[in-house]
Automatic annotation (TrEMBL):
Pfam family, one: NUDIX
Organism: Lysinibacillus composti
Keyword field: Hydrolase
Residues covered by the Nudix hydrolase domain: 1-145
Assigned protein family: Belongs to the Nudix hydrolase family.
InterPro entries: Nudix_hydrolase, NUDIX_hydrolase-like_dom_sf, NUDIX_hydrolase_dom, Nudix_YtkD
Highest taxon above the source species: Bacteria
Name under which the protein is recorded: NUDIX domain-containing protein
Any GO MF annotation of the entry: hydrolase activity
UniProt cross-references to CDD domains, sorted A to Z: NUDIX_RppH
């Protein structure tokens, strides 16, 4: 377990197991590495971040992760694997499930309502990008990047 305080002053608990969950995950986040670059989406308001979002009614966590990645980046992913989860203790605490996935196919991006498309960044570019979303700058994201790189070496 890894704990930290985010930029908004909220306690965040990050875990690298599959529960049991104090709060059921209703959000997803997905790490996709392709040719040594991370798939990121460019959110119109928040900036550069990993693709993710809310689980829709009747959808599994994996289905939500696949859908969100495609909606935000036009990238089809496969081989989805559970990676971690974290709980943000704000006014309405929530839990986000984190997956890793592999690129299956990349379609042409047609602008949607939430994002300006995708960008592929090396780890160094990601760590130093001037327009990162607030959650991409926190200690939890640094810890997850470190852990996912360790896992990729094993795979």
């Amino acid at each position: 377990m890894f704990q930290f305080i985010d930029e908004n002053g909220h306690k965040v608990v990050l875990r690298f197991d599959q529960g049991p969950f104090e709060i059921e995950p209703k959000h997803v986040l997905t790490f996709v590495n392709y040719h040594d670059k991370w798939l990121c989406t460019i959110h119109k308001k928040r900036g550069v971040e990993f693709p993710g979002g809310k689980v829709e009614p009747g959808e599994t966590l994996k289905q939500a992760a696949i859908r969100e990645v495609y909606e935000e980046t036009a990238v089809h992913i496969t081989d989805l694997k559970w990676f971690a989860y974290y709980i943000v203790y704000d006014e309405s605490p929530f839990c986000k499930a984190v997956f890793t996935g592999k690129v299956e196919k990349i379609d042409e991006f047609i602008e949607e309502h939430e994002t300006l498309g995708m960008t592929w960044l090396t780890t160094e570019e990601l760590e130093n990008h001037p327009n990162l979303s607030f959650y991409m700058r926190d200690e939890g994201m640094k810890k997850m990047l470190q852990e996912v790189k360790n896992l990729e070496r094993k795979w």
